[in-house]
Specification:
heterodimer, A: mainly alpha, Four Helix Bundle (Hemerythrin (Met), subunit A), 2 domains, 7 helices, globular, B: mainly alpha, three-stranded mixed beta sheet, two-stranded antiparallel sheet, 16 helices, 5 strands, 4% strand
């Protein structure tokens, strides 16, 4: 590793955010006893991922990551945890099966080997991208010209989901 | 930007905004007193100087800091500790993208009066705002208090509901300006348009009728999108959870709601977050709807071009910059007064009324506004042929 690579701000930002993302992800799995801690770790992981997206010049995706995942979806998780009042009871019954433990350990070992291999072979330089890359305008133009059909289909799908939720909830109320 | 010296008056602006919060406690007391025919804060004094009650904010701060900081039994200690900070940080860092002036070149240096001129400025604000939910929501849960819990549930439902309306309301404005960058919006709003200009295009008046060119309006957001201005203000005030939208803390029903278990400066941080957010709301509305840092019918470039031959380009830029900051702060102060006026005029809504307003009135209206704006843009393009 060359010294010049250490001195760029991108290097430090990358390592800070990626360690936070990994630590957050570990926190989600590790906090077996307290679901609120798990959810908060998930927020940390999501925010760190958003930082990584911004670092990759994908600002719009990063912002949407914060808004949708950290700002809405995990809030709903917390909402459910609060309503059920899962307050660190300790008796969560989350004892892992031997096979799960084995697979988990194997995955961790494989991941570490992969990481070592990536680190050993050096890294690609930060790509020079067009200033307009990843901006709101570029994404908007791509979505509403090249991928307009996909956007429409996704919209209809989401609408169907909303209607289904209303129908299901209404049946309970009536 | 990298080649020129960018001067960011972050420190000064942060100072002004931080001073705003305590002073606003005084403004709120005095304004409510005026509206309710009382005298208001006038007791705190230093050596007999009362300064119209301006000592009160100082006394409040000292009281808050020196108060006992309690930790309720059975609380989630870490979450209880960090929640006030999560609540106040988003309000503070929201200022980063709100421009309080344009870009001025003086004596070879470039002065840009916005801390972070982001391409996705408004989106940044919405993203930051969505994080603010955690501060209030976790507070009520962490204190192990049933009232707090009820406040938490109310606050998270209310903030998520109004986030939807908040984003959809201003899409019409984005369609007209074609940008999310707040500095670009500020520049675009310095333009004017002819109110009766369409008559020339349609041939209703002769092409050389002069009066048509004289009647102009500034291209301010509030002129182009009058209804969304008020809907956006409503949604922002609901996000801020102040009266009349303060059901999450409704004293008469759930005592103090989500921050019931906080004392001292931690409680103070929630109050401060609300007041700072009042300033942020005013700044955002000014930047998006009220022409930002410019006076109506007076484009900044015209002003600089007019002053430059008399005083030289440097002084002309300096005058424009000073004027811009004062105009911006003037508009912000006016909007703060307006928000306080609403706050002291209206009783608290019932919780179901708050929800109905968000989902059944604001959201459909803002969706209709998107459609109407699109039709309007198409008609204007058709008529002007551009």
């Amino acid at each position: 590793m060359k010294l010049a690579g250490l001195l760029t701000p991108q290097f430090w930002v990358f390592w800070i955010f990626s360690s936070a993302a990994v630590a957050g992800a570990a926190g989600v799995v590790g906090n077996v006893r307290n679901p609120i801690n798990s959810a908060l770790s998930l927020v940390v992981s999501m925010l760190a991922l958003a930082g990584l997206y911004v670092l990759l010049e994908a600002q719009f995706v990063g912002l949407i990551q914060v808004m949708v995942y950290a700002g809405a979806i995990v809030v709903l998780f917390l909402f459910v945890i609060m309503l059920l009042n899962l307050r660190g009871s300790g008796a969560s019954g989350a004892e892992l099966q031997p096979l799960t433990k084995l697979v988990g350990t194997g995955l961790v070992v494989l991941g570490t080997l992969f990481l070592v291999r990536v680190l050993a072979t050096g890294r690609a330089p930060w790509p020079d991208v067009d200033p307009s890359y990843g901006t709101t305008r570029a994404i908007g133009e791509a979505l509403y010209s090249d991928y307009v059909l996909s956007v429409q289909v996704a919209g209809v799908l989401l609408l169907a989901g909303i209607l289904a939720a209303v129908v299901l909830a209404k049946k309970k109320v009536d | 930007m990298a080649t020129s010296t960018v001067f960011v008056a972050l420190f000064i602006f942060a100072l002004i905004m931080l001073v705003f919060a305590p002073v606003m406690t005084w403004v709120e007391r005095k304004q409510s007193a005026l509206m309710q025919d009382r005298i208001g804060a006038n007791r705190a004094e230093i050596f007999g100087f009362k300064a119209l009650g301006l000592i009160h904010p100082l006394a409040d701060v000292i009281k808050m800091i020196t108060k006992e900081d309690t930790m309720p039994a059975g609380a989630h200690r870490l979450v209880h500790l960090i929640s006030p900070f999560i609540a106040v940080t988003p309000a503070m860092i929201s200022f980063a993208v709100i421009p309080y002036g344009g870009t001025y070149e003086m004596w070879g240096a470039k002065f840009s009066l916005v801390v972070a001129d982001l391409d996705y400025g408004v989106l940044y604000l919405f993203a930051i705002g969505s994080i603010a939910t955690y501060g209030s929501m976790l507070a009520g849960w962490a204190g192990n208090n049933n009232w707090g819990m009820l406040g938490s549930i109310r606050v998270s439902a209310q903030m998520i509901s109004y986030e939807v309306a908040l984003g959809v309301t201003v899409i019409g404005l984005f369609m007209i300006f074609g940008t999310l960058r707040l500095t670009d919006m500020g520049v675009l709003q310095q333009d004017t348009f002819r109110v009766f200009g369409f008559m020339k295009y349609l041939g209703w008046v002769s092409p050389d009728a002069r009066w048509v060119d004289w009647i102009t309006l500034p291209m301010w957001g509030i002129v182009l999108q009058p209804l969304p201005f008020f809907m956006f203000l409503t949604a922002l005030m609901a996000e801020n959870k102040r009266a009349p939208f303060d059901t999450p803390e409704g004293e008469s029903e759930i005592v103090a709601g989500y921050f019931i278990e906080y004392s001292g400066m931690k409680f103070g941080l929630y109050m401060m977050g609300e007041w700072v957010e009042v300033v942020v709301i005013s700044g955002l509305l000014t930047a998006m709807f009220l022409g930002g840092w410019s006076l109506p019918w007076l484009a900044e470039s015209d002003l600089i071009a007019f002053l430059s031959p008399k005083f030289g380009a440097n002084i002309a830029n300096l005058i424009a910059m000073i004027l811009a900051v004062h105009v911006f702060i003037g508009k912000v102060v006016a909007l703060i007064f307006f928000q306080m006026l609403i706050r002291w005029s209206m009783p608290r809504f019932r919780y179901d009324q708050v929800m109905n307003l968000g989902w059944k009135i604001l959201l459909p209206l803002s969706l209709a506004n998107i459609f109407l704006t699109a039709v309007g843009i198409l008609v204007v393009q058709k008529v002007t042929g551009s």
